[in-house]
Amino acid sequence: MPELADTIDPARWTCPAPLRDQPVVVMGHGGGGALSAELMEQVFAPAYGNATLAALTDSAVLQLGGARLAFSTDSYVVRPLFFPGGSLGDLAVNGTVNDLAMSGARPAYLSAAFVLEEGVELTVVERIARAMGAAAETAGVTIATGDTKVVESGHGDGVYVTTAGVGLVPDGVDIRPQRARPGDAVIVSGPIGLHGVAIMSVREGLEFGVEIASDTAPLADLVAAMLSVTPDIHVLRDPTRGGLAASLNEIARASGTGVRLNERVIPVPDAVANACGFLGLDPLYVANEGRLVAFVPGSAADEVLAAMRAHPQGAGATLIGECVAEHPGMVVVSTGLGGTRVVDLPLGEQLPRIC
């Protein structure tokens, strides 16, 4: 009878998750999790080699002509192009506006570059462009320049959009993940998981009893309201790809601190909880497009929370945990059953192409 070792061939094993040493790009590299981080750290950061990029923040803060500028760029490849609560056009504006706002900047100007696939209907392009114009007006920014390219049929997926933006950072504001400190209150601006579930419901033709709409929205005015209470906000992040879990892990690792959450108070809408339960997903890993998570000195938490709740985009703001000295670089959740679980950085994205 052959030995067990003789019958097992590891070369034939397969795994549904992408392997960490993949020699080619896989979908997980675009998911905002560990694979995305490795792509940045092992490929792009060494190639570009500068301290500004090495900070790995949502937007770079630059000194230029005596002013402090925030500068950010992002590409949008969401599928489908239109979904409950928004569209590719809304995301392309709000996403970049929010990346600028996460450094405390007041967004001012955007660029917009379109990659169009041959054969896409011009009415679709016009609808996206009009959505971008409306979103820019709501956010108080100007789309000042742009570009258009067309690729052959079969070499794209309808429409891709890249936006870049600039804004001014007020004096005295220093918001970055390295500034998280033990004792900080961790606040989320509203219910989580809506965007990812909205995209999934349309893409997969799923019905959950009620329509779930994306939360896509500009957050610069909300951030301004928070800064009016105190300029000493330590960290802001918009938890998009990889959800709240990815953002909190990135902050914990950048600052060398731990994060402790209270599962019972994290605002997960019933519809999102039911959808995630049905699909076997964790709401903490589901993408958002109109939410922020803030690390605020504990002494200012109540005032900041009140200012957030007085703003339409922060009406559901909730204190969900704290920054701690224990378990540096880790995020843990106190569960409703009295236990504790680790919330790790996701490998990739539970649902790709959500933005």
TrEMBL record:
Domain named PurM-like C-terminal: residues: 181-327
Domain PurM-like N-terminal residue range list: 58-169
UniProt-listed NCBIfam families: hypE (TIGR02124)
PANTHER family per the UniProt record, alphabetical: CARBAMOYL DEHYDRATASE HYPE (PTHR30303:SF0), HYDROGENASE ISOENZYMES FORMATION PROTEIN HYPE (PTHR30303)
Family to which this protein belongs: Belongs to the HypE family.
Protein name: Hydrogenase expression/formation protein HypE
Organism, as annotated: Streptomyces dengpaensis
Chain's gene name: hypE
